[in-house]
Amino acid sequence: MESEMTVHDGGCHCKNVRWRVQAPTKVVAWSCNCSNCSMRGNTHFIVPSERFELLGNSEQFLTTYSFGSHTAKHTFCKVCGITSFFYPRSNPDGVAITYRCVDPGTLTYVEVNYFDGQNWENSYNQSNIASQSKVDSGN
């Protein structure tokens, strides 16, 4: 999906965690049914880590949860509990942005694809999720 790049700001519900990300105005987001994402209702798009910036003193309000392979790092706000971004297993060098945590006004279109996280390896091999951060970076 081709679209112009822009700067998106976003963060958690209580605004203690704030970030800025450079990404297209139109994104492909992933709805995952793994045990963690399905409980949180997370739908995210992936960007290269060099296009993500944590702002201000946000780091002090973050905590991290990992499980299973411990590759994914699920970050969330210590105050409000919202996961506005995390480091995904599918793209450990990228950042998964919860698209609903992007401030209004910069995302013009979100296409949602489904990832079968309950059958992670099979879904990973059949989807293009691994190349998503490369797509979003223009590579």
TrEMBL record:
Domain CENP-V/GFA: 8-121
One GO molecular-function entry: metal ion binding
Protein origin, superkingdom: Eukaryota
Entry keyword Metal-binding: yes
Zinc in keyword set: yes
Key words of the record: Metal-binding, Zinc
Cross-referenced PROSITE patterns: CENP_V_GFA
Family, similarity comment: Belongs to the Gfa family.
Protein name: CENP-V/GFA domain-containing protein
